[in-house]
Predict the structure of MFS transporter.
Amino acid sequence: MSTYTRPVMLLLSGLLLLTLAIAVLNTLVPLWLAQEHMSTWQVGVVSS
């Protein structure tokens, strides 16, 4: 059967979901900023 234990599978699936969430945010946030007519460097300064 599978050699992975349940915590390892939960960890891997959690990392996969985290990666997908970051990818979605990296796609949607610039599109949202383009609609708001804000430049990305301004948001970078505010968030840093």
Observations:
- The chain has a mean pLDDT of 78.
- The longest helix spans residues 6-36.
- Helices lie at 6-36, 40-47.
- Residues 4-46 form one domain.
